[in-house]
Amino acid sequence: MSTQTNTAVSSKSQLGARSLVKIGMLSAISVILMTFSIPLPFAPTFYKIDLSEVPVLVGCFAMGPIAGISIELVKILLNFLVNGTTTAGIGEIANFIIGCALVIPAGVIYKKKTTRNGALLGMVVGSLCMTLAGGLLNAYVLLPVYAKAFGMPIQGLVEMGTAVNPNITSLAGFIFLAVVPFNLLKGGIVSLIVMLIYKKISPIFRMK
After folding, report:
1. Pairing relation of β-strands 48-49 and 38-39?
2. What angle separates helix 90-112 from helix 180-206, to the nearest 10 degrees?
3. Mean pLDDT of the chain, nearest integer
4. What are phi and psi of 104, to 5 degrees?
5. What are the C-alpha distances in Å from 182 to residues 71, 155, 205?
6. Residue 57 gets which letter from DSSP?
């Protein structure tokens, strides 16, 4: 009985160690991907798409929602340590929430329905949740913080949006014509990449 108990404990420890290694690896890849960002023609230059959520979503599908949250958290912390912050950490907290808004619904749905359709449904729901969270956080947290950091009123940021899209004339217009399309596009691109690569790389996460 004691031998069986020790074996079970040892197996759990090895499983935990492997999970930590995978989480660390995926977090590191996410941080690297954060350095490669692309500006968009319909939004001000400080909105750039990166693919750092791809490893997070892969880890979420492979190891579950808790692992996805852990990867997202470690990614944000590593990026904070490496690159610092210009928003006193507010931007990093908001990015963590927005990232979790994508991966948690996707991971929960996929865990209940582990099929291609389940993954697709999860990513659609996750993208919509991320878009909602992104809109609310930008309106009430990020844009006010950025305005303060840049030493300008929020209307100054709105005018930066007007410069790329004349239809953006208010904060609401900024959210619906810049922030919402940005998050929908990012969610779609991340989802498409994960759909293309997950089946090919998922055996790596089942290796013992």
Report:
1. antiparallel
2. 60
3. 87
4. -65, -55
5. 22, 20, 31
6. H
